[in-house]
Amino acid sequence: MGKFQFLLRCMFRRKLRTTLTMLSLITAFLLFMLLRSIAFVFDAGWEGVDEGRLQTQSKYSMIEMLPLTHIDQIANVAGVGIVTHSSWFGGVFQEGDTNVATFAVDPETYFDVYSEFEVDAEQLEEFRSIRTAALAPEPMIERYGWEIGQKVPVISPIYPTPSGEPWVFDLVGSYSSGNESDGFQAFLFQHEYLRETFDMGVAGWFVITIDDPSRSDEISAEIDKLFANSPDETRTMTESEAAKQFMAQLGDISLMMTGILSSVFFTMVLLTANTMIQGYRERTSELAVMKTLGFTDLGVATYLLLESVLLCAISAVIGIGLGSMIASSAQDFMPPFVPIYFAWQTVLWAGCIALGLGLLVGLVPAISAIRLSIVDALHRH
Q: Which of 46, 189, 279, 347 can bridge 243 by disulfide, Cβ–Cβ 3.0-4.6 Å?
C-alpha cells in the first residue's frame, strides 16, 4: 500500500463523518470564491480604468445635473484633452429588469474619450447622424436577442415620455472592448434626443481626458476651482476613484464580506478540528502499533498532519473549482454597477487558507501523537 493510499484510507475511516466535513469545507471555499470575487471590486475599484481620464460631477450629489455650458470652461483648462458627457437614463428593456445601464451620451466625443471601445466606422457614423440611433455592447445584444437594425422600445422611470409611451431607439450597431471591466458597458443613445424631448441643457457628469495622469490631482483642483461658489459646484476625480466612491455608497462591502467569511471559517476550524481529534482518539492503539513497528514519533505526527492537510486540500480544490466557474459567469446576473471579477489572487488566497487550515487543525493530533506512550496507549485498549 502506497503512502497516499494509506492517507486516504485513514482519512475515510469514518466515511459519513469525513464526507460531511468535506461538504462543509467545500461550501466554505465556494462562498469564499464568490464573496471575495465581489469584494475584490470594492477593494481595487475598476480594473483597466484609464487613470488618464477624470470624471466631473455635482459636488453635492451624483443625481444632480450639471449645465452643458461647463464643457467649454473645462476644455480651456491646461492639460485637458477631450471632454464628453453622459447622463443616467434608467432604461428598462423588459418588465422587472432594472439591471441595465442606459446612458444618453454625446455621439461626437464619447468614443474619442473611451478609445478602448471598438465600433464599426459605418455604424458610428449612423449613430452620429440618426437622432434616434443607439449602440449596445455585444453581450447585451446577445442577452436580449436583438438584431442590428431593429427598433428597441425602452421605458425610463426617470424620463417618461410626454405621451406615456415607451421610447423607441434604432439599434444601428454594437461596440466591444477587449477588457470587460473598462467602465460601464451601457446601452448608448444620443443625448440630443433627450435634450430635445425635455428641453434640457444639462448632463449627469463629464468625462475628461488629460495629457499627464500624474497631474490628475492638480487638474481636478483647477476644474473645481472654476465653479467654486457657483450654483453648480463640481467635484472632479479620476474615473477609478469615482467608481470606488459610487460603489462605496452601497456600504463597506469588503468589510461585510470579510466578517461573513471569518465567521464561516471559524466554524470550519472547529468542525474540522473535531473530526481530526475524534479520528486520533479512535486510532490511539493503531498509532501505538505503528510506533512499535518502527515508525518514529515525528513520522506518526507527520502522517496525521498530512491527513489533515489532504482533507482540507481536496475540499478546497472542489470548492475553488466550483466557485471559479460560478464567479466567471455570474456577471450576467449582477447589476452593471456591481461587477464580479474572477481574479487569480482569490484562488491563491484560497489555497493559502486551505494549507493554513489543514496545518492548524492537524496540529493538536500531531502533538498528541508525539507525546503518545506505547505502553499507555495499548494498556487503555
A: 46
Q: Where are the alpha helices (DSSP H) in the chain?
A: 3-11, 15-44, 70-75, 110-113, 121-129, 138-144, 191-198, 216-226, 239-248, 253-282, 284-292, 297-329, 344-371, 374-380
> 3 by DSSP, 3-state: which?
helix
Pairing of strands 53-58, 205-210: antiparallel
Q: How far, in Å, are 36, 37, 148, 216, 320 from residue 349 at the CA level?
A: 10, 12, 43, 33, 10
What is the DSSP track for 180-234? TTSS---EEEEHHHHHHHHT--EESEEEEEES-GGGHHHHHHHHHHHTTTSTT-E
Per-residue pLDDT at 18 exceeds 70: yes
Handedness of CA 302, 307, 311, 313 (dihedral sign): positive
Distance of alpha carbon 177 from alpha carbon 137, whole angstroms = 9
On whether the CB atoms of residues 191 and 105 are closer than 8 A, the answer is yes
* Number of other CB atoms surrounding residue 172 within 10 Å: 24
pLDDT (tens digit per residue) in 103-128: 999 999 999 999 889 999 999 999 99
